[in-house]
Amino acid sequence: MTQAPLLRLLRYAKPYRAQVWAAVVCSILRTLLDLAPPYLIGVAIDVVVEQEASLLARFGIQNPLTQLLVLSILTITVWGLESLSQYAADKLWQNLAQTLQHELRVDTYNHLQELDLAYFEDRSTGTLLSILNDDINQLERFLNFGAKFLIDFFTRVSAIGITFMLLAPGVAWLAMVPIPFILWGTFAFQSRLAPCYDAVRDQAGLISDRLANNLSGIATIKSFTAEAYERDRVYVESEAYRRSNGRAIAISVAFQPLLRVFILSGFVITLYFGGREVLQGNLTVGTYGFMVFIVQNLLWPFTELSEIMDEYQRAMASVRRVMGLLDTPVAIPHGDRSLSLNHVQGEVQFNDITFAYNGRNPVLKHLSLHVPTGQTIGIVGATGSGKSTLVKLLLRFYEVQSGQILIDGIDIRNLNLLDLRQCIGWVSQDIFLFHGTVAENIRYGSFNATREQIMQAAKLAEAHEFIEQLPQGYDTIVGERGQKLSGGQRQRLAIARAILKDPPILILDEATSAVDNETEAAIQKSLQVITQNRTTIAIAHRLSTIRHADCIYVMDQGQIIEQGNHEELLSLNGSYSNLWAVQSGLSPTLH
Question: Average pLDDT, stretch 494-512?
Answer without folding.
Answer: 85
